[in-house]
Each structure stands twice: as structure tokens, then as C-alpha cells.
Specification:
It is found in: Membrane. Keywords: Glycoprotein, Glycosyltransferase, Membrane, Transferase, Transmembrane, Transmembrane helix. The chain crosses the membrane at residues 6-23. It is a single-pass type II membrane protein. With 407 residues, the protein is an alpha/beta fold. The protein is built from 15 helices and twelve strands. It has helices spanning 4-25, 71-81, 98-110, 112-117, 135-150, 170-177, 196-201, 244-252, 257-264, 275-280, 284-287, 316-322, 335-345, 369-374, 383-396; strands at 60-66, 87-92, 120-122, 156-161, 165-166, 185-186, 204-206, 219-221, 241-243, 290-291, 296-298, 326-328. It has a five-stranded mixed sheet with strand order 3-2-1-4-9, with helices on both faces. A three-stranded mixed sheet has the order 5-12-11. Strand 11, helix 12 and strand 12 form a beta-alpha-beta unit. Helix 5 crosses helix 8 and helix 6 (170-177) packs parallel to helix 15 (383-396). The longest helix has 22 residues, at 4-25. 39% of the residues are buried.
Length: 407
């Protein structure tokens, strides 16, 4: 009964929005004649930012998010991912204490590198993020909007959690992406819902994070939904690397599909694993931009459980052989992270990852201010670049690559 009392007002408000959209759209409808100039429609005039030339070094925009107790992990992950060319947004959700959030802000404000370069931001007004709920989607879009508005030029948006960690240096990653067309979207996806159709597409859920300050799991209400006919459902990984044009389409949504699907996925179980896939695979301008991989090494139990298992030293060799640039999930202070720092990243405790922009000694950053500025656009790729290039090339050179989009 507790869940049911929210169902009627929620459905009523959704219907009201749909009625409003329909009622306003009928006044702007024009009959299209065969020889009519389609430029009268506003959709034909709105364009995304042009992709940057491959002659330039790519720039990445990161979201690193966490919850209560993840402040130190975010700091470590940020330093392992840092490069002056990139942009970073950090988010600790509303479950985190004010003290922990303030400590993260203080860390960003006093680190000389971040102060000098000015490319790290902390979301001040924290969002309450519910696992499996649409609040995770809205938090991702919130960070993307900040990066589009304040982050200057960048090519790809990457969302990570505090339990993610890189397996390659940023010099490796930027070097490997330099020859890749910048309209590509690395997003795992499939239309074969299998068991997810019954257990995710049909149940109706309410995410308490939409209206409550207290974090709790989603709950189910009746009746169930039918599978939609207005668009085709896709599912996949919640972790992705999205192109700037697609991110702008998600935010500006000039044909309204992103907003329509956002309303639909408000009541969809595990919406972070379906919203982005369903949008990109239902828009003809973006269907052929998909690369079916989330750039992560993730180890699942057999049979799979709700969460992947935590990675340890036992998984180290398999992580490397995957050629993926990221891996998850790692526990707090897991010893394998020190092994990754030492053997793959060359990173010393509490230091940055060495590259052309920063020396191997990892001494106080203030000693390197002039060096950083003069070498910011130089890359020093290592073995990680070879592994990652091999992974990406395997997808893009597949003779059937152009036939495997959004299947």
C-alpha cells in the first residue's frame, strides 16, 4: 500500500506532461508537401558542435562519482586519470556526509595542479543517486551538462565510479584515440533483452531518490507495463564513452526523443543500463556511430549475479589481456591497485601518473609548473597504448563492423 499511494499521482503527472506536449505540438503542425522546403522546421536548423580534427590530440571529459565513504577512492582515481588536457567533474551523492564532501572540495582547491590548470570541478549541490534507478541517469546528464557548459572543447565523455580504475596511462589513452573518428560512441548494447524483458521492461518502479532526502532502494508498483511500440528497446552496460555530438543531442534533444525516453525510463528498472542505448539506437543520425564495447574489464560470476565480483590480484593477468583501458569493481585499498600503479601506470603513492606533462619523480607539483605548461600537448605512450590500439582496431577493422550497429 505504501508504494501504491505514489503510483496514481506519478502516473497523473506523467500523463499531464504528455497531454501538454501533445496539445502544444498540434498548433505548430504543418502539412508537408512533396516540394516543400524542410528548412521551416526548427529541427533542421539545430546542429551539434562539429567534431575536432584528428590532427589534434583528443580531450576527454570525465565524471567520477561515488557515495558515502568514497571520498578517498575518488581522489586516488582522479590522480590516476589526471591529464591537463582533460576535464573532470567529481560527485559524492547526498548520502555522503557534509564533512566528506567538504574534504573533497578542499582537496581540489589546494592541489596546485588543479588550481593552476583549472580543469577539476566538484558538483556542489549533490544529487541523491539510487542504484538501479533513474536518478543515476539524471546525475550523469547533470555532469555532462556542466562539462558542455563550462568544460570548453572536448571530444568524448566518460562516466566512471569510485570503484573503477584505469589500466593504461592517459598518454596511452589519448594516443590510442588520436586516429579514431571522434563521432564514434563506445557503448555496449543489444536489442536481445532475453530475461530482461520480463524482469526489467515490464515491472514499474518508483525511485525514492526523485522525492526523498533519505536513500533507499527502488520499489515496485502495479500494474506492469507492456513493451513499447513507439521505439525499440536496447540494453547494455551503464559505463560508456560518448561523443560530444551525441552528448549534446542528449542534453538539447531538439526532436524531443531524449526527453520522451527519459520520462519512460523514470519507471524502468536499472534504467542506467538502457536509457543511453535506447536513445542512440533509435536516432538514425547516431545508429552508425556505435562501437559495441564499454572499454571496461568486468569479471562476472557464473551464473552472473546482480553485481560483478570484486577484482583482486588473481584477476590481474586477465585484466591486462583484455586490453581494456578501465576495470571495475575494486574494493577500497585493494592490494591489486598498488600493483596496477607500480607495473602499469608508473604511479607512486599519492602521485600523478608520469607522462610528457609531468616527470617521473612525482615530486611537489609546484616544482614543475613551467614544465607542465610547455609540455601539455606532448604525449609519451607506452605498452598500454599498444594494448588499447589492438582492442579498438579489432572492432573498427572488422569486415562486418558497419553491419553490427544497434542489432
Amino acid at each position: 500500500m505504501e508504494g501504491n499511494k505514489w503510483f496514481i499521482p506519478l502516473i497523473f503527472s506523467t500523463l499531464l506532461i504528455i497531454f501538454f506536449l501533445n496539445s502544444t505540438s498540434k498548433y505548430s503542425f504543418h502539412e508537408i508537401k512533396p516540394d516543400q522546403d524542410l528548412s521551416i522546421f526548427v529541427e533542421s536548423k539545430l546542429k551539434t558542435s562539429p567534431t575536432r580534427a584528428n590532427s589534434t590530440i583528443p580531450k576527454l571529459a570525465y565524471l567520477i562519482s561515488g557515495s558515502a565513504g568514497d571520498g578517498e577512492r575518488i581522489k586516488r582515481t582522479l590522480k590516476a586519470l589526471y591529464h591537463p588536457l582533460n576535464q573532470y567533474v567529481l560527485h559524492l551523492d547526498l548520502e555522503t556526509s557534509e564533512e566528506e564532501r567538504n574534504e573533497l572540495v578542499k582537496f581540489v582547491k589546494i592541489e596546485p595542479t588543479f588550481v593552476k590548470i583549472g580543469n577539476v570541478r566538484v558538483i556542489e549541490r549533490s544529487n541523491l543517486v539510487t542504484y538501479r534507478g533513474p536518478t543515476m541517469v539524471s546525475n550523469t546528464l547533470h555532469a555532462a551538462a556542466i562539462l558542455v557548459n563550462e568544460g570548453g572543447e572536448w571530444d568524448w565523455f566518460i562516466n566512471l565510479s569510485a570503484s573503477d580504475y584505469p589500466l593504461v596511462t592517459q598518454d596511452d589513452l589519448l594516443h590510442s584515440l588520436r586516429t579514431i573518428p571522434r563521432y564514434h560512441n563506445f557503448i555496449e548494447h543489444t536489442s536481445d533483452l532475453d530475461w530482461k524483458e520480463e524482469y526489467r521492461a515490464k515491472p514499474v518502479i518508483i525511485d525514492p531518490g526523485l522525492y526523498s532526502l533519505n536513500k533507499s532502494d527502488v520499489f515496485f508498483v502495479e500494474p506492469k507495463m507492456s513493451v513499447p511500440t513507439a521505439f525499440k528497446l536496447f540494453t547494455g552496460s551503464a559505463w560508456m564513452m560518448l561523443s560530444r555530438p551525441f552528448v549534446e543531442y542528449l542534453l538539447f534533444g531538439w526532436d524531443s526523443l531524449p526527453r520522451t525516453l527519459l520520462m519512460y525510463y523514470t519507471n524502468f528498472l536499472s534504467s542506467p543500463e538502457g536509457y543511453f542505448q535506447t536513445v542512440i539506437c533509435n536516432v538514425k543520425e547516431f545508429i552508425n556511430t556505435t562501437v559495441n564495447h564499454d572499454l571496461h574489464f568486468i569479471a562476472w560470476n557464473n551464473p552472473p549475479k546482480q553485481h560483478p565480483h570484486y577484482l583482486t590480484v588473481d584477476d590481474y593477468r586477465e585484466m591486462i589481456e583484455s586490453n581494456a583501458p578501465f576495470a571495475r569493481k575494486f574494493g577500497k585499498n585493494e592490494p591489486v591497485l598498488d600493483k596496477i600503479d607500480s607495473e602499469l601506470l608508473g604511479r607512486k603513492p599519492d602521485g600523478f601518473v608520469p607522462g610528457s606533462w609531468f616527470g617521473d619523480t612525482n615530486t611537489t607539483i609546484s616544482d614543475y609548473m613551467g614544465y607542465i605548461v610547455t609540455n601539455i600537448t606532448s604525449l609519451r605512450p607506452g605498452p598500454g597504448a599498444q594494448r588499447l590500439t589492438s582492442l579498438i582496431s579489432a572492432f573498427l577493422s572488422d569486415k562486418d563492423f558497419d553491419k553490427k550497429h544497434c542489432l
